[in-house]
Amino acid sequence: MSTNTWFSALKKSAVAIVGAATMLGLASPAAAQPGPDGEVGVQVVGGTRAAKGEFPWMVRLSMGCGGALYAPQIVLTAAHCVGRTGNNNSITATIGVVDLQDTTATRVRSTYIYRSPTYGTSTGGDWALIKLASPVTGVKPLKIATTKEYDTGTFDIAGWGDTREGANTGSRYLLKAQVPFVSDATCRGIGGYYSSLIPAAEICAGNLASGGVDTCQGDSGGPMFRKDNAGEWIEVGIVSHGDGCARRNAPGVYTEVSTFAKDIAAAAARI
């Protein structure tokens, strides 16, 4: 598929926040096909730098995707970022820094991948779990939404992906931005690329009128999150795909975490 098509199915393998004014990197990924290890990229366009420790559970994966620490020894990411379910020690997870060149980073190798068996079907399910060789200490995992209560409002996004569509360079620094919820009806009603939206499995977010802020190549697999009623961060979406990065009337499409929360928990208990 064309790079201009939000990496049509894998838009955010490398998420970036692309800002209209700053072009810092929160753009939407196109539907690129992952390599043997699922390499795909998306970044945040229109973002600003995150402070060290602001989102401690953010993970950068060596194949060019993002993720979030789901449990001390498990990273939640996108299915399109990884290969099939099974043993895998080829991925390195970088945690605990915003600057990828920071020597204080915690780096842990993978040992196993669990890829959603429903990904690529009409059921949807662009999520996967990566088990690490050892637990990450000193970091509280990011909890996930188990109901649709938080699947609305304004969401936060973050990633090390491209800062503009087609850049293919990624960002050295973790960028952050905010995007508003877009209803399933509105998103699907855009037509074209969005006519295949799976309402029960996907959630859209973005500035329809102006664009300018979005996830992009290199951001895929990273979390879309917000505060819950207790004031704690909660993951409601996983960067999945979209039509280009930060375009007008072209929101980002994220895996609706609450739909798959039980499946994610069951898989995490088994690996």
TrEMBL record:
State the Gene Ontology terms under molecular function: peptidase activity
Keyword Signal tagged: yes
Signal peptide, first to last residue: 1-32
Q: Which UniProt keywords apply?
A: Disulfide bond, Hydrolase, Protease, Serine protease, Signal
The chain positions of domain Peptidase S1 read 44-269
Q: Which GO terms describe its biological process?
A: proteolysis
Fetch the PROSITE patterns from UniProt. Answer: TRYPSIN_DOM, TRYPSIN_HIS, TRYPSIN_SER
Q: Which domain of life is it from?
A: Bacteria
Keyword Transferase applies = no
Mind telling me which Gene3D superfamilies this protein's record contains?
Trypsin-like serine proteases (2.40.10.10)
- Its transmembrane ranges are none
Q: Entry's PANTHER family?
A: ACROSIN-RELATED, SERINE PROTEASE 56
Q: This chain belongs to which protein, by name?
A: Trypsin protease
